[in-house]
Backbone:
C-alpha cells in the first residue's frame, strides 16, 4: 500500500496547478515543455547530420560530444512521445505503461549526465597528460565508455519496473511517488556523486587551462592557429561551456528533488521542482548553440551546410591539415 503522505501529494500538486500561482507552471508544462522538446530534436538532428557529413569533425575528441548529441536527441523524443502514444491508445492510466514511459524519460537523462562525466574525464586527461592522451584515449575505450554509459543509464531507468509495485503510487511520473529508498539509492546519491566529480574536474581543468592559455598567448607568434595546443584549448573551452551550463541546470534540479523528498507537501517546493525540470530539459538543446557560437570549426561547417557563401570554403581550403 502507498503511505498516507504519498496519497495526499497528487491532490496538493493538482491544487497548485490550477491555482492562480500555478498558471505560470501550467503554461511551462503544457506549452513551453513541448516547444523545448521540438527544439531539442531539431538542434540535435542538425548537430548529428553536421558531424556525419563532414569527416574533419569526426575526431577522437568529438566522439563523446557526438554520442551526447544522440542521447539529447533521444531525450527530446522520449519526454513527450510516450505520453502522447499512451493517450492515443487509451492506456495512459495503466500503471505499467506509466512506469515504462517513466523509464524512457529517466534513461536519456542518466545517459546525458554519465556522458558529461565521461567528457570531463576525457578533457582532464587531454589537459593533464597531453603526451599520453592518444595512448590512453583510444577508439575502443571510447566505444566501451559510451556503451557503459548507455547500459548503466538503462539499468537505473529499468529498476523501478522490478521494484515491488505496491510501494509505488499509481501516479508514477514524479519522484514524489517513488519509494524513498529507491529515490535516494538510485537517483539522489548517484546524481550527487556524478555532479561532484564533474564539478571537481571542472575547476581543476579551468585552472590548468587558464595557465596554458597564457603560455599559448606568449608563444602566439610561433604557434599558428591550427596547432594542436590551440585546438585542445578550443576543445576545452567548449567543454567548459557545456559542463558549466549542465551544472547550472542539474544542481538546482538535484536540490529541488532532495527538498521534494524531505518536504513533499510544500507547494513552493513542488513549484520549484517542476520549474527546475523545465530548466533541466532545456539543457539538451543548448549544446548545438555552444558548438555554433564557440567552436569555429563546427560553425564553418554549419555555414557550409546552409550555403552561406564561398568565404567559408576558402577558409577551409587555406587551413592547415592536422
Residues:
Amino acid at each position: 500500500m502507498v503511505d498516507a503522505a504519498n496519497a495526499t501529494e497528487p491532490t496538493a500538486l493538482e491544487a497548485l496547478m490550477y491555482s492562480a500561482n500555478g498558471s505560470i507552471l501550467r503554461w511551462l508544462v503544457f506549452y513551453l515543455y513541448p516547444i523545448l522538446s521540438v527544439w531539442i530534436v531539431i538542434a540535435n538532428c542538425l548537430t548529428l547530420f553536421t558531424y556525419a557529413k563532414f569527416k574533419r569533425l569526426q575526431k577522437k575528441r568529438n566522439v563523446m560530444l557526438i554520442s551526447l548529441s544522440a542521447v539529447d536527441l533521444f531525450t527530446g523524443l522520449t519526454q513527450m512521445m510516450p505520453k502522447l502514444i499512451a493517450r492515443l491508445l487509451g492506456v495512459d492510466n495503466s500503471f505499467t505503461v506509466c512506469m515504462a514511459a517513466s523509464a524512457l524519460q529517466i534513461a536519456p537523462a542518466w545517459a546525458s549526465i554519465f556522458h558529461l562525466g565521461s567528457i570531463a574525464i576525457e578533457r582532464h586527461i587531454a589537459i593533464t597528460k597531453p603526451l599520453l592522451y592518444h595512448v590512453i584515449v583510444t577508439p575502443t575505450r571510447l566505444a566501451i565508455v559510451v556503451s557503459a554509459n548507455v547500459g548503466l543509464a538503462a539499468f537505473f531507468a529499468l529498476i523501478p519496473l522490478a521494484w515491488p509495485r505496491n510501494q509505488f503510487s499509481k501516479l508514477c511520473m514524479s519522484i514524489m511517488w517513488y519509494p524513498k529508498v529507491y529515490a535516494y539509492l538510485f537517483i539522489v546519491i548517484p546524481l550527487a556523486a556524478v555532479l561532484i566529480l564533474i564539478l571537481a574536474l571542472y575547476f581543476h581543468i579551468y585552472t590548468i587551462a587558464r595557465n596554458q592559455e597564457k603560455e599559448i598567448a606568449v608563444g602566439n607568434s610561433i604557434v599558428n592557429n591550427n596547432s594542436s595546443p590551440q585546438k585542445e584549448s578550443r576543445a576545452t573551452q567548449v567543454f567548459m561551456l557545456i559542463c558549466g551550463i549542465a551544472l547550472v541546470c542539474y544542481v538546482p534540479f538535484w536540490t529541488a528533488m532532495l527538498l521534494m523528498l524531505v518536504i513533499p507537501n510544500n507547494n513552493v517546493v513542488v513549484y520549484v521542482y517542476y520549474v527546475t525540470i523545465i530548466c533541466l530539459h532545456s539543457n539538451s538543446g543548448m549544446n548545438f548553440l555552444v558548438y555554433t557560437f564557440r567552436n569555429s570549426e563546427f560553425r564553418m561547417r554549419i555555414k557550409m551546410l546552409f550555403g552561406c557563401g564561398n568565404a567559408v570554403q576558402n577558409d577551409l581550403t587555406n587551413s592547415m591539415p592536422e
User: Anything to note?
Assistant: The chain has one domain: 4-316.
